[in-house]
């Protein structure tokens, strides 16, 4: 892992993810933490640049449509405990699941929008399991 990757990870850990957790708290009334598999990003500078837009932004857009009323906000507060992110190298390795309060997204971040789940897909998964 080079200096640029370490700098980007530090920025994500200290600024980006805390801001996204705060945004989730504003949306549903509870901050939901991220757990990131940093090793999966270690040799992929391109992926590091897109993790916020591809996962965090899309998730928050999905949460905004779920949390349009008190029932939605309560369901998210009670049902979503953790968000786990992992970088994968190609689309065939992508997966998304929501079990036992853990939303897990394995995205091919370096592929940009070709390696992501859209907010509608995220929303439908959460609604089905909340």
Description:
This protein has 130 residues and is α/β, with parallel strands linked by helices. Helix content is 53%, strand content 15%. It has 4 helices and 4 strands; from the N terminus they run αβααβββα. Strands 1-2-4-3 form a 4-stranded mixed β-sheet. A hairpin with a 2-residue loop joins strand 3 (95-99) and strand 4. Helix 1 (3-28) runs parallel beside helix 2 and helix 2 packs across helix 4. The termini are far apart.
In N-to-C order, the SSE pattern is: HEHHEEEH
**How large a portion of the residues is in β-strands, by DSSP E?**
15-25%
> Globular, elongated, flat, extended or rod-shaped: what is the shape?
globular
Q: What's the helical proportion of residues?
A: 40-55%
Taking all Cα atoms into account, the compactness measure Rg is 14 Å
Mean of pLDDT? 96
Tell me the number of strands: 4
How many alpha or pi helices? 4
The biggest sheet, with number of strands, parallel, antiparallel or mixed sense and barrel status, is: 4 strands, mixed
Low-confidence stretches: none
Give the helices and strands, then pairings.
Layout: H1 3-28, E1 34-36, H2 45-66, H3 70-79, E2 82-87, E3 95-99, E4 102-107, H4 119-129
Parallel strand pairs: 1-2, 2-4
Antiparallel strand pairs: 3-4
Helix pairs in contact: 1-2, 2-4
Short description:
A 4-stranded mixed sheet has the order 1-2-4-3. It has helices spanning 3-28, 45-66, 70-79, 119-129, and strands spanning 34-36, 82-87, 95-99, 102-107. The chain is an alpha/beta fold.
